[in-house]
Amino acid sequence: MPSPVLVGSPDALPDLVADLPEQAWKLIDAFWPGALTLVARHQPSLRWDLGETHGTVAVRMPHHPLALDLLADTGPLAVSSANLTGRPSPQDCAGAQHMLGDTVAVYLDAGPTPGSVPSTIVDITGPRPVLRRAGALTAGQLRTVVPELEEPI
Question: The whole model's pTM is what?
Fold first, then answer.
């Protein structure tokens, strides 16, 4: 699975993403920080090994004060999920440690998560935004900002 990149501010996007369309900025203004991941074409200068991304990068600005503080200190971070593929996400640090063990060097404990619903993923690489994964944000919520949102069949 490709690694998404967390940003602490939309100001970090020009170094990561090439040519953000107007629809992307509307989504960012409406739903960041929050549970919206955008898949965009990455900058040719981005040399991070994010997995098989086919020229794209998935970016999200989390809505958590500790994560935002960390990102303010580090800049954008490529991250993984706190769960193994196909298993439910743990709701606290102890659950993540139980699932992932020593495969993770550092755990950052900020208390339990507010919910188990993943972020919504919208692909903005084409002429119209496409809903790739429904999550915390519904298609209806997204369409209030970008009515032209497509859902794959």
Answer: 0.90
